[in-house]
Amino acid sequence: RGEGGEAVEAAAPDPAEEATAGQPAPEMPPAPETPREEAAGAGLGISELMGRRAGLEEAVDHVGVMIKGLKDKRTVLEKEIEEESVEVKNLREKLVKIQEYIEEERRGLDALKKRRAAVEAAAVEAAERMAALRAMISELDGIVNAESARTRAFRESGRAMDGAGTG
Fold first, then answer.
1. 33 in helix, strand or coil?
2. 135 and 129 Cβ atoms separated by less than 8 Å
3. Are 19 and 51 in contact (CB under 8 A)?
4. What is the pTM of this model?
5. Which DSSP string corresponds to 87-141?
6. With the C-alpha atoms ordered 8, 9, 10, 15, is the resulting torsion angle positive or negative?
């Protein structure tokens, strides 16, 4: 209790002071101070400045951790992009091979179409020749039949003459 019976609250310890309480104070060479400077230093709040410095150091450390995390993420991303790049390259190579296969198949089908057309033309020509040969054979058959008929007629007429002259 203070003078006059008033309750006096104990000042809460500064968090920055607690953080630096376990650490030895940095050694600085003693500087000659005048009584006026000592009063001014105490008024500036050296402990507050030390607390701010500790907070800044923690922030810098935290930023360092964040930067390391970003670097790690970037490295992972670079690896993933490289893997995807390789996969895309492989797919493109496969697509080129597929395109080449399709073109080869088209050329093969075009060659088959030409070959089929040539065979079809040869078949039409063979059918025309067959028809011409059948016509020739029919013509020859007609000639043979006509000659056969003449020969029979001639024989019959010769027999008829043989029988008419003797009798």
1. coil
2. no
3. yes
4. 0.43
5. HHHHHHHHHHHHHHHHHHHHHHHHHHHHHHHHHHHHHHHHHHHHHHHHHHHHHHH
6. negative
Query: Cα(62)–Cα(69) distance, rounded to whole angstroms?
Result: 10
Task: Please check whether residue 47 is in contact with residue 14, taking contact to mean a CB–CB distance below 8 angstroms.
Answer: yes
Residue 45 gets which letter from DSSP?
A: T
Amino acid at 155: R
Q: 98: which 2 tokens?
A: 């597929």
Identity of residue 26: P
Checking if the pLDDT of 130 tops 50, the result is yes
Q: Residue 57 and residue 63: Cα distance in Å, rounded?
A: 10
Whole-angstrom distance, CA of residue 62 vs CA of residue 41 = 30
C-alpha distance from residue 46 to each of 28, 39, 49 (Å): 13, 11, 5
Give kind and range of the element (H or E) at residue 4.
none
40 within 8 A of 74, measured Cβ to Cβ? no
Cα dist from 42 to 21, 24, 45, 48, 75, whole Å: 18, 20, 6, 10, 49
Lowest-confidence segment of 18-22, 80-84, 92-96, 142-146 by average pLDDT = 18-22
pLDDT tens across 59-117, in order?
Answer: 999 999 999 999 999 999 999 999 999 999 999 999 999 999 999 999 999 999 999 99
